[in-house]
Amino acid sequence: PGPADYQAEDAAISQGAVESNHAGFTGAGFVNYDNLAGSYVEFTVNAAKAGPATLTLRYANGTTSGRPMDITVNGTLAAGELAFDPTGAWTTWTTRTVTVQLNAGANTIRAAAATAGGGPNLDRISLG
Ligand code: GCU
């Protein structure tokens, strides 16, 4: 099978809202993070086996400032202040990729805003 997709609007959201007012998202919408550090989206994902996996996050950032996020896997920081640079418009979506280590079975992946601007608008993650 190809990469597994997990929609942000189906994940656990702390300090954010599901919205659909900027076109180009997949699924039913995207998550608009509240504009503060610590707002997060947490996914529960399944891995067939333990080991490295490619995590792809699809996002938009219509501001002129970065919206870095801390990526935590099973409670351990996997990527600190991963950059989510401006995409030019809230309707322009792009992807950011990072390698993470997964356990066999269920894993939690949290993407938490690292700065006061909050996170970007997050459409989905994919694991491959
Ligand atoms: C605007 C935009 C939102 C976005 C927000 C932000 O309000 O419409 O989709 O999340 O800016 O700066 O985070």
UniProtKB/TrEMBL annotation:
Domain CBM6 intervals: 4-128
Identification of the protein by name: CBM35 domain-containing protein
Lineage: Bacteria, Bacillati, Actinomycetota, Actinomycetes, Streptosporangiales
Residues of the full protein shown: 715 to 842 of 842
